[in-house]
Amino acid sequence: MSQLQSLALGVRLTVTNPVSESTSAFGPGVAKLCLGVREHGSLNASAKAIRMAYSKAWRILKDTEESLGVQLLLRDGAHGSTLTEEGNRLLDAYLSIQGKLSEEAQELFDDMVR
């Protein structure tokens, strides 16, 4: 068995706004924060779950929203946060595409290193 066959391939998907001057993008980290908001009901709890400072998580999401021109979170102060309709749609699409790309890329890699 080739040593290459034991390797796993990783694919990093990002969603960007082609007309934005910002380099912020919706990628794996933002997706993880958004998924945490969906699961835990707040950005603070989401940040804590991945051991990130709330201030950093807030800045990342704010920068991403500005770059994409899409509001991802509805913030309700002490009552937490929820994803907007567009935030949910973007997260669902991102997770689905990321999963399909990862599976297909691994299959292609496995076929090529045999």
TrEMBL record:
All residue ranges annotated as the HTH lysR-type domain in the record: 35-87
Molecular-function GO term, any one: DNA-binding transcription factor activity
InterPro entries the record matches: LysR_HTH_N, Molybdate_resp_trans_reg, WH-like_DNA-bd_sf, WH_DNA-bd_sf
Transmembrane spans: none
Gene3D superfamilies documented for this protein: Winged helix-like DNA-binding domain superfamily/Winged helix DNA-binding domain
Name recorded for this polypeptide: ModE molybdate transport repressor domain-containing protein
